[in-house]
Write a structure and sequence with these properties.
Layout (H helix, E strand, L loop, with lengths): L15 H22 L2 H8 L3 H7 L3 H13 L10 H16 L2 H14 L3 H28 L9 H25 L6 H18 L2
Amino acid sequence: MQSRTPPARTGRPRSAEADAAILAATRDALVELGWSGMSLGDVAQRAGVAKTTLYRRWAGKNELVVDAVAELFDELVLPDGDSLAADVVGVVLQFGELLQRPETRTSLMAVVAESTSDPALRLRIRTAIVDRQKRLVLQGRERAQRRGELPYEAEPAVAEQHADLIFDVIAGAVVHRALVSDGPVDEAWAQALAGLLIAGLPAAMT
Protein backbone atom coordinates (compact mmCIF):
# COMPACT_ATOMS: atom_id res chain seq x y z
CA MET A 1 0.00 0.00 0.00
CA GLN A 2 1.44 3.31 -1.04
CA SER A 3 1.66 6.08 1.52
CA ARG A 4 -0.04 9.30 0.61
CA THR A 5 1.80 12.56 0.82
CA PRO A 6 -0.08 14.98 3.06
CA PRO A 7 -1.52 17.91 1.15
CA ALA A 8 0.46 21.13 1.20
CA ARG A 9 -0.76 23.78 3.58
CA THR A 10 -2.64 26.56 1.92
CA GLY A 11 -3.05 30.16 2.85
CA ARG A 12 -0.85 33.20 2.77
CA PRO A 13 2.69 32.74 4.09
CA ARG A 14 3.80 34.74 7.11
CA SER A 15 5.08 38.13 6.03
CA ALA A 16 8.25 39.53 7.60
CA GLU A 17 7.14 43.01 6.54
CA ALA A 18 3.79 42.59 8.29
CA ASP A 19 5.49 41.29 11.44
CA ALA A 20 7.85 44.28 11.51
CA ALA A 21 4.94 46.69 11.02
CA ILE A 22 2.97 45.04 13.83
CA LEU A 23 5.86 45.14 16.29
CA ALA A 24 6.60 48.79 15.47
CA ALA A 25 2.91 49.64 15.87
CA THR A 26 2.90 47.87 19.23
CA ARG A 27 5.75 50.02 20.52
CA ASP A 28 4.12 53.19 19.19
CA ALA A 29 0.83 52.30 20.87
CA LEU A 30 2.57 51.64 24.18
CA VAL A 31 4.29 55.04 24.09
CA GLU A 32 1.03 56.85 23.35
CA LEU A 33 -1.52 54.77 25.25
CA GLY A 34 0.34 52.79 27.90
CA TRP A 35 -0.14 49.13 28.73
CA SER A 36 -3.75 49.37 29.94
CA GLY A 37 -4.85 51.62 27.08
CA MET A 38 -3.32 49.57 24.29
CA SER A 39 -5.44 46.96 22.53
CA LEU A 40 -4.74 44.50 19.74
CA GLY A 41 -7.35 46.26 17.67
CA ASP A 42 -5.46 49.53 17.96
CA VAL A 43 -2.20 47.82 17.00
CA ALA A 44 -3.83 46.19 13.98
CA GLN A 45 -5.20 49.52 12.80
CA ARG A 46 -1.83 51.23 13.16
CA ALA A 47 -0.05 48.38 11.35
CA GLY A 48 -2.62 48.27 8.55
CA VAL A 49 -3.50 44.59 9.09
CA ALA A 50 -6.59 42.68 10.14
CA LYS A 51 -7.01 41.91 13.84
CA THR A 52 -7.13 38.20 12.97
CA THR A 53 -3.60 38.55 11.60
CA LEU A 54 -2.35 39.38 15.08
CA TYR A 55 -4.16 36.44 16.67
CA ARG A 56 -2.66 34.05 14.14
CA ARG A 57 0.82 35.17 15.23
CA TRP A 58 0.42 35.99 18.93
CA ALA A 59 -1.86 34.51 21.57
CA GLY A 60 -2.39 37.86 23.26
CA LYS A 61 -1.02 41.23 24.31
CA ASN A 62 1.68 39.82 26.59
CA GLU A 63 3.37 37.77 23.90
CA LEU A 64 3.07 40.59 21.37
CA VAL A 65 4.67 43.19 23.64
CA VAL A 66 7.54 40.89 24.66
CA ASP A 67 8.34 40.23 21.00
CA ALA A 68 8.16 43.96 20.28
CA VAL A 69 10.72 44.57 23.04
CA ALA A 70 12.88 41.62 21.99
CA GLU A 71 13.16 42.99 18.46
CA LEU A 72 14.76 46.16 19.83
CA PHE A 73 17.30 44.26 21.91
CA ASP A 74 18.25 42.15 18.91
CA GLU A 75 19.90 45.32 17.55
CA LEU A 76 22.70 44.98 20.14
CA VAL A 77 25.96 43.57 18.79
CA LEU A 78 29.32 42.76 20.35
CA PRO A 79 31.82 45.36 19.09
CA ASP A 80 35.07 44.32 17.49
CA GLY A 81 37.22 45.39 20.43
CA ASP A 82 40.77 44.31 21.24
CA SER A 83 40.14 43.64 24.93
CA LEU A 84 37.45 42.51 27.33
CA ALA A 85 37.20 46.05 28.68
CA ALA A 86 36.59 47.46 25.20
CA ASP A 87 33.93 44.83 24.52
CA VAL A 88 32.11 45.56 27.78
CA VAL A 89 32.23 49.32 27.27
CA GLY A 90 30.96 48.97 23.70
CA VAL A 91 27.97 46.84 24.70
CA VAL A 92 27.15 49.04 27.70
CA LEU A 93 27.11 52.19 25.57
CA GLN A 94 24.87 50.55 22.97
CA PHE A 95 22.54 49.33 25.69
CA GLY A 96 22.40 52.75 27.31
CA GLU A 97 21.63 54.42 24.00
CA LEU A 98 18.89 51.89 23.29
CA LEU A 99 17.27 52.59 26.65
CA GLN A 100 17.12 56.31 25.84
CA ARG A 101 14.66 55.65 23.03
CA PRO A 102 11.07 56.28 24.20
CA GLU A 103 9.75 53.10 22.62
CA THR A 104 12.36 51.01 24.46
CA ARG A 105 11.89 52.67 27.83
CA THR A 106 8.10 52.50 27.73
CA SER A 107 7.86 48.98 26.33
CA LEU A 108 10.43 47.48 28.69
CA MET A 109 9.07 49.14 31.82
CA ALA A 110 5.51 48.18 30.90
CA VAL A 111 6.25 44.52 30.29
CA VAL A 112 8.45 44.20 33.41
CA ALA A 113 5.79 45.82 35.59
CA GLU A 114 3.11 43.51 34.19
CA SER A 115 5.31 40.45 34.70
CA THR A 116 5.48 40.94 38.48
CA SER A 117 2.08 39.23 38.77
CA ASP A 118 2.35 36.96 35.72
CA PRO A 119 4.80 34.01 35.95
CA ALA A 120 4.13 32.99 32.34
CA LEU A 121 5.05 36.47 31.16
CA ARG A 122 8.27 36.37 33.21
CA LEU A 123 9.18 33.10 31.53
CA ARG A 124 8.52 34.55 28.10
CA ILE A 125 10.70 37.57 28.92
CA ARG A 126 13.51 35.23 29.89
CA THR A 127 13.29 33.07 26.79
CA ALA A 128 12.63 35.84 24.26
CA ILE A 129 14.89 38.57 25.66
CA VAL A 130 17.29 37.43 28.39
CA ASP A 131 18.35 34.10 26.89
CA ARG A 132 18.69 35.62 23.42
CA GLN A 133 20.80 38.53 24.59
CA LYS A 134 23.03 36.29 26.68
CA ARG A 135 24.71 35.57 23.33
CA LEU A 136 26.67 38.81 23.84
CA VAL A 137 28.08 37.51 27.13
CA LEU A 138 28.97 34.14 25.60
CA GLN A 139 30.72 35.77 22.63
CA GLY A 140 32.60 38.26 24.81
CA ARG A 141 33.68 35.61 27.30
CA GLU A 142 34.91 33.31 24.54
CA ARG A 143 37.00 36.11 23.05
CA ALA A 144 38.42 37.00 26.47
CA GLN A 145 39.29 33.39 27.17
CA ARG A 146 41.08 33.05 23.84
CA ARG A 147 43.08 36.19 24.69
CA GLY A 148 43.94 34.81 28.11
CA GLU A 149 41.98 37.51 29.96
CA LEU A 150 39.63 35.04 31.64
CA PRO A 151 40.07 31.43 32.76
CA TYR A 152 38.19 28.56 31.15
CA GLU A 153 35.60 26.74 33.24
CA ALA A 154 35.93 22.97 33.41
CA GLU A 155 32.24 22.27 34.03
CA PRO A 156 29.48 23.37 31.62
CA ALA A 157 27.10 24.00 34.52
CA VAL A 158 29.61 26.34 36.15
CA ALA A 159 30.19 28.14 32.85
CA GLU A 160 26.43 28.68 32.53
CA GLN A 161 26.24 30.09 36.04
CA HIS A 162 29.05 32.51 35.27
CA ALA A 163 27.34 33.64 32.06
CA ASP A 164 24.15 34.30 34.03
CA LEU A 165 26.08 36.29 36.63
CA ILE A 166 27.87 38.43 34.03
CA PHE A 167 24.62 39.15 32.22
CA ASP A 168 22.79 40.03 35.43
CA VAL A 169 25.53 42.41 36.57
CA ILE A 170 25.75 44.28 33.26
CA ALA A 171 22.05 44.35 32.41
CA GLY A 172 21.00 45.14 35.96
CA ALA A 173 23.48 47.98 36.33
CA VAL A 174 22.60 49.60 32.99
CA VAL A 175 18.83 49.30 33.45
CA HIS A 176 19.05 50.74 36.98
CA ARG A 177 21.30 53.57 35.82
CA ALA A 178 19.13 54.51 32.83
CA LEU A 179 15.61 53.83 34.05
CA VAL A 180 15.72 54.06 37.86
CA SER A 181 18.40 56.53 38.91
CA ASP A 182 18.15 58.32 35.54
CA GLY A 183 21.88 58.85 35.27
CA PRO A 184 23.87 59.05 32.04
CA VAL A 185 25.27 55.84 30.59
CA ASP A 186 28.29 57.61 29.16
CA GLU A 187 31.88 56.64 28.38
CA ALA A 188 33.18 57.39 31.88
CA TRP A 189 30.45 55.40 33.59
CA ALA A 190 30.79 52.50 31.14
CA GLN A 191 34.55 52.34 31.73
CA ALA A 192 34.05 52.38 35.50
CA LEU A 193 31.53 49.54 35.27
CA ALA A 194 33.85 47.54 33.00
CA GLY A 195 36.74 48.03 35.42
CA LEU A 196 34.65 46.92 38.40
CA LEU A 197 33.35 43.88 36.52
CA ILE A 198 36.71 42.75 35.16
CA ALA A 199 38.44 43.14 38.52
CA GLY A 200 35.99 40.73 40.09
CA LEU A 201 35.56 38.20 37.29
CA PRO A 202 38.76 36.15 37.75
CA ALA A 203 37.95 35.56 41.41
CA ALA A 204 34.33 34.67 40.62
CA MET A 205 35.36 32.21 37.90
CA THR A 206 37.86 30.22 39.96
